[in-house]
Amino acid sequence: MHTLQRIVIGLLAVSAACANDRRAAHDSTVPEVAPQGWLCANSTTASDLEPEQLSALLQDIGEAKIVVLGETHEDGAAYRVKAALVRELHQKLGFRVIAWEMPFFDGVQAERSLESDLPGREVMSRVGDLWSHSAEVEELISYVSATRHTSNPLRLFGFDCKFGLVAQDLKNELLNELIKFFYVDGVWLAPREALLVVAQWLRSGAGTSLNEKLNIEPMPSVLLESTFDTPVSSLNVADAVDELLFALSSQRTEIETRHGHLQGKLVERMLLLVRMSVQWLETAENATASTERGVLRRSIRERAMAETILWYMNEVYHGEKIIVWTAGIHGLKESPLEPQGSMQSSSFTPMTGLLRSQLGSAVYAIGFTASGGEVGNADSTQVAPVPMPPAAQGSLERWFLNQKISSAVIMMRRLPRDHWLKSPTIASIYEGAPIRTYWWKLIDSVVFYPAHMPWTPIR
Q: Coil, strand or helix: which one is 128?
């Protein structure tokens, strides 16, 4: 008998609702199936995953090189469960890098803060507003920081291309980074006017319409010391980035001698992401319909994020196992069948699907779901938490509740061929919205906990 089967049988023995209590309320649209090796459930009052459930999940992950942890943003319960999984993956399966859904340069600075042994609050300021005020995430960052003093340190990077999310102080740091890189000992290693265009774009918030004239002050004085031969207005951002990339490529030996190989690679990747971010904005302006715009923008961003993760894996961390902390939509192998928000077409491929197209089953996707509750800041004096819908009739979440299950892991790859979950099923794995689709095709496992919970503010 397999270890996982013994775990499940043991759990079912103490869970009358899962195996013996057929008097429980039951939704007739969802079959009542005796669990086998595909389910590890808990019927106690605890909502966190039990050691047996974590063990079963790790066994299912096996030899995967990338594990993607999706979430409904601002769900403190998901943050807590994901943080526990990060620790387990690090300690037991040898994962040593966390890829976080924050802008690329924020990740560079967060890693530098960890490397410099700065306080956890300093690192937290880099990870983005969705997480930077959460005590659950702070506890995880403290753990990451503590590992830097061991023989098994955890590394951190950001993979988003949305430079508009970068805080203003970080934009200033990014500009200084580019200036120090291309302006050395009074000599420009790249066209100054190209750098000025990129600087203006970044200082505008990277969200201003590209057709608007940018007039941003203050601009670093070193960029304004002389009159440019080429008026700034005639050089668009994408062309400016290309000029900087050409300068880096044509003078790579000299630049890397001055700055080091890794710094050269980081700046090159940063500029490529600026260009993709420009493309992302231009697509939004030029698309003829909102549906087309949503799909095109989503496709560009998903591709940029997947490429950045692969770049870090191959160029910086050289095959190290990576944990990806991201939103639910980016963590799907395919898009759902039903339109949802900006996902209007089943033709676009989420980030995780793009990763799988390169790495196959070495990419393992975990979804998270719950029934009802709230998301947001637990301190309602700031912003009131947002209520989440209860489990829909006929949904996977309703099945868990009817079986008196308080936490569970379903391993989709272990489902029997004729299992009811192999049919289109309603589940709220994506941002708490009930969607009917083939979930077993979209994720490799799903973690259930009884309710969404607001995150705890840092005191």
A: coil
CB atoms within 10 A of CB 36: 15
Using CB atoms within 10 A of its CB, is residue 407 exposed (0-12), middle (13-18) or buried (19+)? Answer: buried
Distances (CA, A) of 132 to 56, 174, 328, 344: 31, 20, 19, 31
Between CA 325 and CA 319 the distance in angstroms is 18
pLDDT in tens, 330-362: 999 998 755 444 444 446 899 999 999 999 999
Rounded CA separation 381/352 (Å): 37
Predicted pLDDT at 225: 52
User: Token pair for residue 388?
Assistant: 């989440």
Average pLDDT of every residue of the chain: 81
DSSP bridge pairs for 386: 375
What's the confidence (pLDDT) of residue 87?
A: 97
Supply the pLDDT for residue 274: 87
How far apart CA 393 and CA 398 sit, in angstroms, is 6
Secondary structure E strands in 36-109: 39-42, 66-69, 97-103
3-state DSSP assignment of residue 257: helix
* Coil/strand/helix, residue 126: coil
Contact criterion met (CB below 8 Å) for 195 and 232: no
pLDDT at res. 220:
58
CB-CB neighbours of 286 under 10 Å: 11
- Which DSSP state fits 330? G
The bridge status of strand 66-69 relative to strand 322-325 is parallel
Cis peptide before 218 (omega within 30 of 0): yes
Task: Using the predicted structure, report yes or no on whether residue 89 has a pLDDT greater than 50.
Answer: yes
- Residues 325-347 as b or e (16 or more Cβ within 10 Å = b): bbbbbbbbbbbbeeebebbbeee
Nearest CA among 187, 181, 216 for reference residue 200: 216
Please report which confidence band the pLDDT of residue 439 belongs to, taking 50, 70 and 90 as the band edges: very high
Output the pLDDT for position 168.
Answer: 62
Over residues 92-116, the mean pLDDT reads: 93
pLDDT at 207 over 70: no
Tokens encoding 34: 């005796």
What distance in Å separates the CA atoms of residue 19 and residue 344, rounded to the nearest whole number? Answer: 40
114: tokens are 């960890």
Q: Which two tokens stand for residue 304?
A: 């940029």
Mean pLDDT of 380-409: 91
Tell me, letter by letter, the H, E, C secondary structure of 406-438.
CEEEEEHHHCCCCCHHHCCEEECCCCCCCEEEC
How many helices (DSSP H) and strands (DSSP E) are in the chain? 16, 14
102 CB contacts (<8 Å, ≥6 apart)?
110, 126, 127, 128, 158, 159, 160, 165
